[in-house]
Amino acid sequence: MSYEELLGIIRGRRSVRRFKPDPVPPEDIERMLEAALWAPSGSNTQPWLFNVVTNRDQIAQTADVIRLEIERIALEAPGFAETGENLARWGTFFDRAPLVFFVAGRRERSSWRTKLAETMPEHPAAGGSLSWLVSCAAAIQNLLLAAHALGYGTCWMGAPLVAKIPLEGFLELPEGYELLAVIPTGRPAEEPFPPRRKPREETVRLISQGR
Ligand SMILES: Cc1cc2nc3c(=O)[nH]c(=O)nc-3n(C[C@H](O)[C@H](O)[C@H](O)COP(=O)(O)O)c2cc1C
Question: Distance between CA atoms of 17 and 153, rounded to whole angstroms?
Fold first, then answer.
């Protein structure tokens, strides 16, 4: 594959929020997972867990878990009501997708960091590492790109994490795993305009060029 083809996939991927109801065949789900699972990870820990849900009722129930949690928060914190309404809209539209990935991860620690924490606990690098989290993010991006290459739309969603704890219970995540992202997937029913990217000066620094 050429650079242009790869960039075409990367640039062409959009966050899609409307889906056709057609079920996603298992072989396509498998191909998306295959791409995700080949992501790099710190010390090859592969700290991710992809929870695949295709059952319409289960998907609807997970969205209800989120709505309920938002209502509960709004009862305790009345100032939250308006934000909560928005959050409910932006955080539950995954219930219109025929396939949803609930991506979880485990706080793995590399052996050098464990050793450092034992021998020099006050060293700043001995604390919590984000390696497990960024490794999961790499796997998620692989999944989004593979889905796009196969003609599916996806949206990486963080808003559902307002109900992280109840969702983790509902999904019966294994001990030690935390919910990181919700990714609705399906044939796109919209073609979103690409949101603008920041100018290079804000996001790239050329620290040195040549000698
Ligand atoms: C960590 C993360 C969390 C996100 N959470 C949400 C979300 O909860 N709801 C939503 O509609 N989009 C969400 N998005 C999608 C972003 O809004 C989107 O990626 C951004 O606007 C750029 O658009 P593009 O993905 O089409 O390039 C999230 C993206 C990331 C990476």
Answer: 8
- Does residue 47 or residue 89 have the better pLDDT? 47
Q: Is 50 a member of any domain? A: yes
Give every strand in the sheet of 177-186, ordered side by side: 48-53, 99-106, 177-186, 153-154
CATH number of the CATH domain containing 119: 3.40.109.10
Q: Which residues line ligand 1 (CB under 6 A)?
A: 14-15, 17, 90-91, 155-159, 192, 195
Closest CA to 181 of 162, 163, 164, 156: 156
**3-class DSSP state for residue 205?**
coil
Residue 1 is encoded by which pair of tokens? 């594959």
Tens of pLDDT, residue by residue over 164-201, are 999 999 999 999 999 999 999 999 999 999 999 999 99
Q: What is the pLDDT of residues 13-62, one digit of tens each?
A: 999 999 999 999 999 999 999 999 999 999 999 999 999 999 999 999 99
Atom of ligand 1 nearest to the CA of 195: 23
Compute the distance from residue 111 Cα to the ligand 1 centre, in Å.
Answer: 33
Distance 20 CA to ligand 1 centre (A): 20
pTM summary value: 0.95
Residue 4 lies inside a defined structural domain of this protein? no
What range does the domain containing 134 cover?
A: 27-191
Q: Has residue 128 got a pLDDT over 80?
A: no
Residue of minimum CA distance from atom 11 in ligand 1: 90
Asked if the structure places residue 204 within a domain, the reply is: no
Number of domains the chain contains:
1
Q: How confident is residue 80, by pLDDT bands cut at 50, 70 and 90? A: confident
